[in-house]
Design goal:
alpha/beta; Nucleotidyltransferase, domain 5; 2 domains; 5-stranded mixed sheet
Amino acid sequence: MPEFPNYIIGVDIGGTRIKFGLLDAIDGSILHQHTVPTLDGEWTGADPAWAVAIREYVAAVEKERGPARAVGIAAPGLAAADNRCIVKMPGRLNGLEGLDWTQWLGRPASVLNDAHAALLGECWCGAAQGLRHVVLLTLGTGVGGAILIDGKLLQGHTGRAGHLGHLTVDADGPPTIAGMPGGLDSIIGNATVAARSENRFTSTAELTDAVRSGDPFATAVWERSVYQLACGVGSLLNVLDPEAVVIGGGIAEVGDLLFRPLRQHLDKIEWRPLGKATPVLPALLGEWAGTFGAAKFALR
């Protein structure tokens, strides 16, 4: 890697992989990208192996290139008000809660919820460049989200803001992991495909493959899910009035099979007092969005 002192480091801690992005501090252009296995549950002495891997990578890069202008971490869970640590992340990444990243790395660093980071990445270098009012939905195992208002990330009082998967769209539906009945998590997330399809399908990929082949049952399940998603998006539009909604995550990779009916439903239900539809945009940065956003946030 050639010397490039005016750079920033973004790190995104995923369940299976840690992604590292070295980016130009001015325009976000990619200088280098790297991944390593997360190895959640493995330890190096008394420390989580994933945390040691991040510290070693940052130290090696700065030894070769000189100090980065900023280092940002994207991680699951609720970030502290000062963005020095994740204060709540039960169930996985043991050791993440309370880990002060500035102390751990031995240099100033910040941590941000991974969906929050993805939104900032899309606003900096992705689908929402130049926009100041944006809602992000990530459709994967569950549904994540984030909100930008007047150019500022909404983290909320406890860091909980943006957990849009727990927005209720069916008061009689099954609860999300947060206990909200009929949330977006339950109606479109990959984890609930079997429940939504009477155990005929186990993943969104299986379900949408059947839709493409003309299976009427699969089509009915999918259309219901997308309609309920449209109701959730329409509700968010009324509450937040964004310039655009960006949709990413693995489920969004089905493309027009999702976006075409979603826009058609919004044509019928979206309140458009000025006669103009709110753009619904596919995310552009894919799995690297969190590295862009974490690095950009750390520059603040």
